[in-house]
Specification:
Blueprint (H helix, E strand, L loop, with lengths): L11 H28 L5 H29 L4 H5 L1 H24 L6 H7 L13 H16 L3 H7 L1 H8 L2 H14 L1 H4 L4 H31 L7 E5 L8 E6 L2 E8 L2 E6 L13 E3 L2 E3 L6 E2 L16 E2 L1 E4 L2 E4 L13 E2 L22 H27 L8 E2 L5 E8 L5 E4 L10 E6 L7 H4 L6 E11 L2 E6 L5 E2 L14 E14 H7 L9 H9 L4 E7 L4 E7 L17 E11 L2 E5 L6 E2 L7 E2 L1
Parallel strand pairs: 15-17, 20-25, 21-23
Antiparallel strand pairs: 1-10, 2-3, 3-4, 4-8, 4-11, 5-6, 6-7, 9-10, 12-16, 13-14, 13-16, 14-15, 16-17, 16-18, 19-20, 19-22, 20-21, 22-23, 22-24
Helix pairs in contact: 1-2, 1-12, 2-4, 2-11, 4-5, 4-6, 6-9, 7-8
């Protein structure tokens, strides 16, 4: 206990604890990102990093939640509890990086404020399958922020212990939200049964340990509780070790009877700091010391040593024929009570299983056990990370030549979507290739090429390509007109009408899907696709036939207009679209009215014959 607030008081034990935590986190991230890059080389670096920080924070939250019940089941885990708030702050920092990068990646650089986009990019609040998972993570992160920001004892004192405790119990709300965030997000985009099994195992572990610790506490309460208004026989004097306590439940309150220096005193068994188990504490230098964080109280009055002001209720105690009797009616907190005298001190307690984190060193046996447990948790967490990254869905090959600027010469076409018509190498006749054109970030190229339809230009940009579809992200200021023609629009070849077709697939934004953010599809990418498409990037229907061969059709209205704003509510969902398919050189266009798009029932195949 200290009188003045300090940022952090690192003693040798705390330094070892934090070094182990730092090693564990950095080792996990290095393994997850490194192995992920080897197993999934087509995925972008941002994807690996976001996944690494997200899984690290989620696993660390499980570790935090099981420490408490483990300590209730076996007090030898208490050294892990003493610095649990360090774990919490670290877990929040990992979650904040995950959430910040995700918000920047999926919601930033578009036409809507990123924080507004989190709640509006996916409007399917009416569907469990398509329910937006990112708002759940955002709310959970807000709860974790409040807990991390109030982790210092300054807030514990000024908020008062009951308010502070209630606030930090919200961790279970955050955990439930994060389980839903993972289940409705990442798990819906993955195919391996290992991932939902691991999430289920984590939930069972957290719930099972809490139920086991509660059952242990309840069993003890049931054996000791008595409905009485007079003195209650709680135990024999010899049942209480020297400097330790016997805990009993009387009329619903836990009471700790301490033996020290030939005397007995009874006090409330709940520490005023965080409701720590004083009955598992020890009398050190004449004061009861809580095993959780070292708060101290005088056994004969329940008051903390001056200048501290914490105090706990006391109980009258007496000895008859070698038996300890306690009056179950609590006295006001801080009331002095004459201790009961006994014949000398009892047997010395075992020094190997009591430790308070402010002490410079833990007992040798307990320190060795703590190191083994810490190493075990570290290895298990690393193994889980490797398991997760190894069973993730394979990422198809797609490319974005980020930072590589090339020059291109061709003819601009504004309709039906912005493209650059480029003659194929080695040919003088036949249809050219059409490269889709987009601007930087989440913006289409319509404004940059406006009025240049049919004009020959030289432009600079970076290539984005996947399978047989290619796109150019325009470099700022790199577009130059080569010639002026009287009727430039007449230079375009007429489209080839391929007839009416009914196709099944998923709407994606062409820029991310072709390689800028790989993988750029499914529900986890829905928010980003909404921002890209609402910013003018051409929407594409990605379809596959029974052999797995993919085709990508740019979506426009039946009259050829852009339908970007009309399809935002249907992105990343299985759809069936009937319309006219056209071939503009090597670019496929699907003309259909968005109000005719049909959502497919969950589980129905999207494969096209």
């Amino acid at each position: 206990m200290t009188l003045q607030y300090q940022a952090v008081g690192w003693n040798p034990q705390k330094k070892r604890y934090d070094r182990a935590l730092l090693l564990g986190v950095l080792g996990y991230l290095a393994l997850f990102v490194g192995v992920g890059a080897v197993l999934h080389p087509a995925a972008t670096a941002e994807t690996h990093i976001i996944r690494g920080f997200g899984t690290a924070s989620f696993l660390l939250l499980h570790v935090i939640l099981v420490i408490g019940p483990l300590c209730r089941l076996d007090r030898r885990f208490l050294p892990l509890l003493y610095n649990r708030r360090h774990l919490g702050v670290c877990m929040f920092a990992l979650a904040l990086i995950h959430g910040g990068l995700s918000t920047l990646q999926f919601h930033g650089f578009g036409d809507v404020n990123p924080f507004v986009s989190i709640f509006t990019a996916n409007p399917r609040y009416d569907s469990l399958t398509h329910f937006p998972f990112q708002p759940l993570g955002f709310v959970a992160l807000g709860i974790l922020f409040l807990m991390a920001a109030t982790s210092h004892d300054f807030w514990l004192t000024n908020l008062t212990a009951p308010v502070w405790k209630a606030l930090h119990m919200l961790v279970y709300v955050a955990y439930a939200l994060l389980v839903m965030h993972v289940t409705l997000g990442a798990l819906q985009s993955e195919t391996s049964p290992v991932l939902p099994a691991l999430v289920g195992l984590g939930m069972v572990s957290v719930l099972g340990l809490h139920l086991a610790s509660a059952a242990k506490e309840k069993a003890g309460d049931r054996r000791a509780d008595r409905e009485a208004s007079d003195w209650v026989d709680v135990c024999a004097v010899d049942d209480i070790p020297e400097a330790r306590a016997h805990t009993v439940t009387l009329a619903g309150d836990r009471v700790a009877v301490f033996r020290y220096d030939g005397k007995l005193s009874a006090v409330s068994a709940a520490c005023q700091h965080q409701n720590g188990p004083l009955g598992e504490g020890r009398v050190i230098d004449g004061t009861i010391t809580c095993p959780w964080h070292g708060y101290q109280y005088r056994p004969d009055c329940g008051r903390s040593p001056e200048p501290f002001t914490e105090k706990i209720p006391t109980f009258a105690v007496q000895v008859r024929d070698g038996r300890v009797l306690v009056d179950p009616r609590p006295l006001p907190a801080g009331t002095a009570v004459e201790p009961a005298s006994i014949d000398g001190p009892g047997d010395s307690p075992d020094d190997g299983d009591f430790y308070v984190g402010y002490l410079p060193e833990a007992p040798a046996a307990l320190g060795a056990r703590t190191r083994r447990v810490t190493l075990g948790l570290m290895v298990v967490t690393w193994a889980l990370g490797l398991t997760i990254v190894s069973v993730l869905r394979p990422v198809p090959l797609a490319n974005f030549e980020f930072g590589v600027v090339r020059s291109f010469t061709g003819r601009i076409s504004e309709q039906p979507v912005p493209t650059l018509e480029v003659d194929r190498p080695g040919t003088t006749a036949g249809p050219p290739s059409r490269f889709l054109l987009v601007s930087g970030f989440k913006w289409g190229a319509g404004a940059e090429i406006a009025g240049l339809d049919g004009r020959r230009v030289t432009l600079q940009g970076s290539l984005v390509y996947r399978d047989d579809r290619t796109m150019i992200e325009l470099a700022p200021g790199g577009l130059r007109l080569l010639e002026d023609q009287a009727s430039p629009a007449d230079q375009h070849r007429p489209p080839v009408i391929l007839g009416e077709h009914t196709l099944r697939g998923e709407i994606v934004d062409s820029k991310c899907f072709l390689g800028v953010m790989n993988p750029g599809n499914l529900k986890v990418h829905r928010a980003c696709a909404a921002r890209c498409i609402s910013g003018g990037i051409p929407p594409v229907l990605a379809v596959r036939n029974e052999s797995g061969v993919a085709s990508y059709l740019v979506l426009v209205g039946a009259d050829g207009r852009m339908v970007n704003d009309e399809i935002l509510a249907m992105i990343a969902e299985p759809l069936e679209i009937s319309g006219t398919v056209e071939r503009h050189d090597d670019l496929l266009i699907l003309r259909a009215e968005p109000d005719t798009y049909r959502r497919l029932p969950d589980g129905q195949s999207q494969t096209n014959p």
